UniProtKB/TrEMBL annotation, chain A:
Protein name, as recorded: ABC-2 type transport system permease protein
Transmembrane segments: 72-92, 99-118, 149-171, 178-202, 214-233, 277-298, 358-377, 389-409, 439-458, 464-483, 504-525, 531-549
Protein's UniProt keywords contain Transmembrane: yes
Keyword terms, alphabetized: Membrane, Transmembrane, Transmembrane helix
Organism: Alkalibacterium olivapovliticus
TrEMBL record, chain B:
Origin superkingdom: Bacteria
Name by which UniProt lists this protein: ABC-2 type transport system ATP-binding protein
Lineage of the organism: Bacteria, Bacillati, Bacillota, Bacilli, Lactobacillales
Matches recorded under Pfam families: ABC_tran
Limits of the ABC transporter domain: 5-235
Keywords, comma-separated and alphabetical: ATP-binding, Nucleotide-binding, Transport
Any GO MF annotation of the entry: ATP binding
UniProt KW Cell inner membrane keyword: no
Length: 557, 262
């Protein structure tokens, strides 16, 4: 019999997600999950997500501890707003083109940013102690975790898909509308299923410290795979008449591996009739769904049973690298700041949760410019060299990583250790913020920017080096501005919860417009205004010098 | 009498390093077993394997007369567990947490509420029943964990460092409680670093060192080997007799001086 631990009995108070789940409870029961227990665990998790941890004494988190509001759901409207841009698709009369773009966008958004933030929930080991020691089987616990993440993913998908779904009903009819709605939900379940499959495989094959690293690398691979997939999907279509917006599709056998296309085939059949290709793709979609469902059913308890490997002790020693030591000497004048610099560097080097949250974004920030370079090189007239100017905007992509970085450094698995920051004899908040900002700049942003800048230099020659140096200095200033704006608590002092999973992702999307404007201003002014490069260099050097010595002092007092 | 728990040749490795090496022992119903050993000896690993949290590499475990592989998870309803670290879902209140645990054990809400309030009252934390666990002290969290391990009236208790963070009065209460639980027929398997408590409470003491059982018997029998306290016996069996030298080394390190060779 089910009890009402959190006031969630079937009543008017019952949250909608539980009511909907009750309707499909037979699926859980048939696959061997104890549904009442799973429902109870899930309700508890969702309740906890809505509550904030109280800030530790002396640290202002900017939130009330008794606040019960799930930030994730209340911020979903932003995604709906952003995905309004997809409505341009309805100007084309090619459904396959419309929905290929839509589903590719959906997959890339979910895989490259959002899903990484949920890995901590799927790979949580605390539940094994507090719930796994009670009469709850591994399958039930695994199903509760997957459903927990699934609820967020489905809501995210619906928020992103809402404009397209509504316009589909209006322009393409009820059948297409229902189809796009159902397939959108299925797409997010695919993302979850694929991620769980990857985790289950890795957890089975590896142990100890290697396992932790491979989990992080798998996130990178998934996001790189998605970015490349998005590029390849883009290659299938060609606008053959810009006036009538006529699109031609060139599907080849190689494209059969691009699974977002499988989601599109039913629309092709609806608009153009049944063809062998569409039929084959639809069959692949159905077979893939059944396959993933079977894998999920088979893997949920395996993941739980192998999860304890994550907690197995490791004797790996970590040393300060030459770069870390030199950077600390060069950029941190104050000994306290130097200590925090090493602390920030080491904690982000060893904490798996930080890596899994950030690495996919790093991969995207690196792969996007490479794909764009390739597109630029292949899109021009044959035999005509591309203007160097067409490559200059690429390093600015690095800046899109900054919001995710600023969000990631706020959380830590070991957030309770933050009492130690109160023990320093001097006011440590400003040096701490400066040190972590510098560590992240040197450890993550500079190498990333350098790789892209070298790529750009290869095409443009050294005459644009000053522009590229200015770009890096600007990145550093923007990191400071973003950290000052968004980091409300001290670094590594907050507990991570599912309701905050979309913070970085949303930040990146909002960041896109200012980064675009700034990069255009920077490039145009340096190309056309005499001595602008030198003037900008001086200004940026001054700003960097200021934040690196005096930054963060006012706010954190 | 058939043992309630029987472990034979239990082995476990982490990262290729053996943590349990052919561990064998048995526990009879109604016994209090003190399971002690230095940090990293494998005590918590043994309990985690019994509770199905991690899989064993080799050996056999029979609980309630059956190999644990034969059971579904229902056997855990007869076990009460207190983990080594007082990790709780901190955003919940004590009431919500205990109701949730009660629910997982299949208990009625009214029963859990009544029991929880009474048990919290007995341990002096009733006023915090509706307080968030995040605001609880270490000792208060430990009490909540102890309550949660007893809500369902289990047959065998696995308590890992149950006295962690408790004040002197609470320690006395828990010691009395352990004794009364034994009188009530419960089997208690607990590990602790507080030798004095282990010595006084345990019917039998198991000492684990480097993944191997190095002593197993009532204290009265074991002390004949060491001729002293349990602490002395522990030091002898775990090969540790350099307390003074290490304390001296520590002090020198603190003052930034070189240690002299002994």
């Amino acid at each position: 019999m089910m009890r009402d631990v959190l006031g969630l009995k079937k009543s008017e108070k019952t949250p909608i997600y539980l009511r909907l789940l009750d309707l499909i409870s037979f699926i859980y029961t048939r696959s061997g999950v104890n549904y009442p227990q799973m429902r109870s665990i899930l309700a508890l998790k969702m309740t906890m997500d809505g509550r904030k941890d109280s800030a530790l004494p002396g640290f202002e988190s900017g939130r009330r501890s008794d606040e019960e509001k799930n930030q994730f759901f209340s911020s979903l409207w932003v995604y709906t707003l952003i995905s309004l841009f997809l409505l341009f698709l309805f100007a084309y009369d090619n459904w396959v083109f419309q929905y290929t773009t839509y589903f590719s966008f959906l997959f890339i958004m979910t895989f490259s940013t959002l899903l990484a933030n949920f890995s901590n929930i799927l790979l949580d080991t605390k539940d094994a102690i507090l719930i796994g020691t009670k009469p709850v089987d591994r399958k039930t616990l695994g199903a509760a975790k997957a459903t927990h993440v699934g609820i967020y993913l489905l809501s995210f998908t619906l928020a992103i898909g809402l404009p397209v779904i509504l316009f589909t009903f209006y322009f393409n009819g009820i059948v297409a509308g229902i189809l796009v709605f159902l397939l959108s939900l299925l797409a997010s379940l695919w993302c979850l299923g694929l991620t769980l499959f990857v985790y289950a495989t890795i957890l089975k094959q590896f142990d100890g410290e290697r396992l932790k690293n491979i989990i992080a690398y798998s996130q990178i691979s998934l996001s790189v795979f998605m970015v490349l997939g998005y590029y390849l999907v883009g290659q299938i279509f060609q606008v053959i008449d810009p006036e009538t917006l006529l699109v031609e599709m060139n599907l080849s056998v190689a494209h059969v591996l691009l699974f977002p296309m499988w989601f599109v085939a039913p629309f092709g059949m609806l608009q153009e009739g049944v063809t062998a290709t569409y039929l084959a793709y639809t069959a692949l979609l159905l077979a893939g769904t059944v396959f993933l469902a079977l894998l999920f059913n088979w893997n949920t308890d395996k993941i739980e049973s192998n999860l304890q490997k994550m907690d197995s002790s490791s004797t790996k020693r970590t040393k300060r690298s030459a770069i870390e030591r030199t950077a600390a000497k060069l950029f941190c004048l104050d000994p306290l700041e130097k200590a925090y610099f090493h602390f920030g560097w080491q904690i982000t080097k060893t904490e798996r949760e930080f890596k899994t949250r950030l690495y996919p974004s790093i991969a995207s920030a690196l792969v996007f410019p490479i794909v764009m370079t390739y597109t630029t090189l292949t899109s021009g007239e044959p035999g005509v060299a591309q203007s160097p100017v067409t490559f200059l905007y690429l390093p600015y992509f690095t800046m899109l990583l900054i919001p995710v970085l600023a969000v990631s450094i706020q959380f830590s698995k070991n957030y309770k250790g933050n009492w130690v920051f109160n023990l320093t004899p001097n006011d440590s908040k400003a040096p701490f913020m400066r040190a972590v900002a510098k560590a992240m700049l040197i450890k993550i942003l500079v190498p990333l920017y350098t790789v892209v800048a070298i790529l750009v230099l290869y095409f443009t020659g050294f005459s644009y080096s000053l522009q590229l140096i200015n770009g890096l200095l600007l990145t550093s200033v923007i990191l400071y501005v973003e950290m000052k704006r968004s980091v409300t608590a001290l670094p590594f002092s907050r507990k991570y919860s599912a309701s905050e999973a979309n913070m970085g992702c949303m930040g990146t999307l909002i960041f896109f417009i200012p980064v675009f404007v700034i990069s255009v201003i920077m490039i145009v002014s340096q190309l056309f205004v005499p001595f602008a490069e030198w003037a900008i260099l001086l200004i940026l050097l001054g700003l960097n010098g200021w934040w690196m010595t005096k930054g963060f002092t006012r706010k954190t007092k | 009498m058939e043992p309630i728990l029987e472990i034979s040749h239990l082995t476990k490795q982490f990262d290729g390093k053996p943590v349990l090496k052919e561990v064998s022992f048995s526990v009879n119903p109604g016994e209090i077993i003190g399971y002690i050993g230095p940090n990293g000896a494998g005590k918590s690993t043994t309990v985690k394997i019994i509770l199905g949290m991690i899989d064993k590499d080799g050996g056999d475990i029979r609980l309630f007369g059956q190999p644990i592989e034969n059971y579904d998870v229902s056997y855990k309803a007869r076990i009460g567990y207190v983990p080594e670290n007082a990790d709780l879902y901190e955003t919940l209140t004590a009431k919500e947490y205990l109701l949730f645990i009660g629910e997982l054990y299949g208990l009625e809400e009214e029963e859990v509420l009544k029991k929880s309030e009474q048990m919290m009252d007995a341990l002096g934390i009733k006023d915090s029943f509706n307080g968030r666990l995040a605001s609880f002290s270490k000792g208060m969290r430990q009490k909540v964990l102890i309550i949660s391990s007893l809500l369902h009236d289990p047959d065998i208790l696995f308590w890992d460092e149950p006295l962690n963070g408790l004040d002197a009065n609470s320690v006395q209460v828990i010691k009395e409680l352990l004794w009364k639980l034994k009188m009530d027929g419960k089997t208690i398997f607990y590990s602790s670093h507080v030798m004095d408590t282990v010595e006084k409470l345990s019917d039998r003491i198991l000492i684990l060192n480097d993944g191997e059982v190095v002593a197993n018997g009532p204290f009265e029998e074991l002390k004949e080997e060491a001729d002293g306290t349990l602490e002395q016996l522990f030091n002898t069996l775990t090969g540790f007799d350099q307390h003074a030298a290490l304390a001296e080394q520590f002090l020198l390190a603190m003052k930034g001086e070189e240690a002299h060779d002994a």
